[in-house]
Amino acid sequence: MKSRRDIMKAGLAAGVAAGLPLTLSAEAVAQALTSLQIFVPAAPGGGWDGTGRAIEAVMRAEKIMENFQFEHAPGAGGVVGLPKFMSSKKGQPNAIMIGGMVMVGAIIANKAPLKLSDLTPIARLTGEFEAIVVHADSPFKTMKDLVTAFKAEPGKISWAGGSAGGTDHILAGMIAKAVGVDPKQVAYVAYAGGGPATAALLGNQVSCGISGYGEFAEQIKAGKLRVLALSSDKRQPGIDAPTLKEQGVDVELFNWRGVFAAPGITKEQQATLIGLFEKLVISEGWKNELNKRDWTGIYLPGDGFGKYIDSEVTRITGILTDLGLAKK
User: Fold this and answer.
1) Residue segments in the chain with a per-residue pLDDT below the cut of 50
2) Which helix (H) or strand (E) covers residue 317, if one does?
3) How far apart are the C-alpha atoms of 73 and 81, rounded to whole Å?
């Protein structure tokens, strides 16, 4: 009696003889996918790393996947890691890269030759709304107060946030444009992350700050910072703050994060990876993780995610052009 391996070998040989493409079925690919390589184009401890660790924890707990390997390649908002992932993981069906909106902006601002559409889209997973905050003793009690001062003398209002051209900077530019101020007039002060930006706010070194709500949550709860507005589409449970839209600023922004597979994998291999993440997002463990981390689930798989990336490139190119950081 022939073994299963012998039968598979015979089938592959027949495919070669007939000149047929050597693509395995989704079932065969799934059987071969016994581990997941998670590539993080940023340093450990940041938002992309946190996303990867959350994926690992929930997949283990839900018995979706048990074996994981992590690799980090930080620098330039993901632009350093992107070519490394593309070259070292090409064609590997079990390799994924964590990425997000920040990388779209970084690729554009750095005029990088590679782009996210060169990868294989798997799924958009989460969105994190931004918060606009001020020191607790700030004269700006509402977003209207801040906008009034900003429109009167744009250069006198300093905005603290993460890297130039990143999500925080983009939101500041969107707010400026929405209220009739030239985005190039935004006095943006870039910091290495939410921690240094928070320190600048607490030291009254800047007028206001922008970051993911989680970066400011501890100081807000301690009464040292005050939230003026959220960039979400609606008010968020447990946060006593209105949205920008509620206060007449027609802006909405989520800092999304998702996963990409390597270039050169087959459609069947892509479908298998999408299947893994479909199991992840419907699990109770993932729902609990979203609540714990103040993330919003915005799952969008496969080709739909790919089309979303294309639209984001167009949108963010426009915003960065308005800020003087890119050319159309």
Assistant:
1) 1-31
2) helix 302-322
3) 5
Domains and CATH numbers, the chain: 26-127+254-322 (3.40.190.150), 129-247 (3.40.190.10)
Taking the whole predicted model, whether its pTM rises above 0.85 is answered as no
At 278, which helix (H) or strand (E)?
A: helix 267-281
> Cβ of 299: how many Cβ atoms within 10 Å?
17
The whole-number pLDDT of residue 43 equals 87
The one-character DSSP state at 5 is H
* Token pair for 202: 């607490």
135 neighbors 224 (Cβ within 8 angstroms): yes
What are the φ and ψ backbone dihedral angles of 264, each rounded to 5 degrees? Answer: 90, 5
Smallest CA-to-CA distance from 130 within 299, 244, 258 is with 244
Q: Are 326 and 320 in contact (CB under 8 A)?
A: yes
Taking the C-alpha atoms of residue 260 and residue 96, their distance in angstroms, rounded to an integer, is 5
Token code pair at residue 114: 């590679």
Q: The tokens of 148 are what?
A: 């009034």
3-state secondary structure of 245: helix
Are residues 39 and 97 in contact, defined by beta-carbon separation less than 8 angstroms?
yes
Q: What is residue 37's three-state secondary structure?
A: strand
Q: What share of the chain is helix, strand, coil (3-state, %, to 5)?
A: 45, 20, 30
- pLDDT for the residue numbered 228: 98
Note the pLDDT of residue 259: 98
**Smallest Cα–Cα separation from 71: which of 101, 91, 94?**
94
